[in-house]
Amino acid sequence: MSIFKQKILWIGTAGVLVVLIVFGAAMMGSMLGTKPRDVPVALVVMDQPANLPNGATLAVGEMMKQKLTSNTQLPIHWTVVGSEEEARAGLDSREYYGALILPADLSAGVASLTGPSPKPATVQIIANEGFNSPAATVVKQGLGQAMKMVNAELSKTMLEQLGQQTQQIPVSVAQALLSPINVHDETVHAVGTNNATGNAPGLLAQIMWMGSLVAGVILFLARGAAMKAGARKWATLAWQPVGGIALVGAASGFLVWMASSWYGMELAQAGETWLFLWLVGATFFLIQSTLLNWIGFPAMAILVLLMFFSMPLLNMAPEFLTQTTRDWIYSWTPLRFGAVGLREVMYFGGWDAAGDNATILWSISGAFLVLLVAAGLKKDKAHQATTAATASNPTTVPIK
User: Fold this and answer.
1) What H or E segment, with its residue span, contains residue 143?
2) Average pLDDT, 10 consecutive residues per value, the chain (400 residues)
3) What is the CATH number of domain 39-188?
4) Within 10 A of 127 (CB to CB), how many other CB atoms are there?
5) Is 195 in contact with 260 (CB distance < 8 Å)?
6) How far, in Å, CA of 34 to CA of 28, rounded?
7) Cα separation of 231 and 89, whole Å?
8) Is the separation of the CB atoms in 208 and 280 below 8 Å?
9) How far apart are CA 341 and CA 331, in angstroms?
10) Parts of the chain belonging to CATH 3.40.1710.10
C-alpha cells in the first residue's frame, strides 16, 4: 500500500476538494438560494365606485388595491402610479417587470351583474418580457392567480346579493358570475423567436467572453514572439490592443450572423446588436489582455473563475438573487454589464436604450487600456535597467 504514502496522492486529493468547493460555490452557491423577492410592478387604479340597487356603494378597485398591496404571499413590490401612460413609460424605462391596470368601469362592470344585461369589465396584466423573461413570467403567473382569487370572492359576494333579491338567476347573469372580471394579458418588449426565451443576451455575452479570451491569448503569445524576434516594443505594445479589438469586431459580427442565419435568432436591431457586442468583446479583451500582460498565464485561473461565477447570474433578475450574491458578484462583474446592455439594445430599441451600460463598458475599456499600456512600460523599464547594468559591467554573468 505504498501508494498511500505518496505526497502527490494527498496533494491531489486536496486539489480535488478545492476544485469542488470553488466551482460548487460558482455554480450552486449563488443559485440555490434564488427566489423572487420584491419584484417591482406598477399598479394603476382608475376605477370609479358604482351604486348597487340596494343603495350600497361598490368600489372594486380600492378593494383590490388593499388586498394586493397587503398580500405578503405575492413576491411583488407595488408602485401605485396615476395613469396607464405613466405605467407604460415605466415599463419602457425598465422600472417595472409588469403592470396591472384597473379600468375606470371596473366597479360598474361588476355592479352590472345584478341587472339583466351584465357587462363585466376587463383588467389588463402587462408583462415586460424583454426586461427579464423569468421575472415577467412570475408577474404574469402571480397576478393571474391573484385575479382568480378576487374573481372567486366577488362571485360569492354577488351571488349572495342576488340571492336576497330573487331566487331565479338568468343564464347570462349566471355565466357572468363565473368570472366577474375579465383578464386581458399583454406582453411588451417581446423577445422574439429563437431567443432562448429571452436568455439570448446572456448567451451572447458568455460566447463573446470565450471568443475574446482566445483572441487575448493569441495576441499575448504573438507579442511575446515578436519581442523575442527583435521587434520594437512600442510597435508590439500598440498592435496588441489594436489587433485584438479588430479581431473581436470581426468575431462579434460573425457571432451575430451565425445566431441569425444558423439558428434563426430574431434580431430586430441586428446592426446595433453587432456594434454593442463589439464594445462588449473589446472590453472583455482589454480586461483579459491586461491581466495576461501583468500576471502571465496564471491570470487564466482568475479569468476562468470570473466566467464561472458570472454565468449563472447573467439571465437572472437581481430581485431573484440573495443580497450576498448581488453585492459580491452581480454588482461588479463585467459580464453582467455586457448582458444587460445587450438586452436593452435587442429588446428596448437599440443603442440609445443601453446608455448607462454602454458608458460603464467604455469606462472599463479606457481604464484597462491604460493598465495594458502600463504593463508594457513596466517591462520596458525592467529591460532598460538590465541593459544598463550589463553595459556598465559587461563581465558580469547573470546568476541563474
Assistant:
1) helix 133-165
2) 70 78 66 81 95 81 92 92 96 96 92 77 94 94 90 76 57 62 93 92 96 95 88 81 95 96 93 97 97 94 92 91 88 96 95 93 96 78 47 49
3) 3.40.1710.10
4) 26
5) no
6) 10
7) 57
8) yes
9) 14
10) 39-188
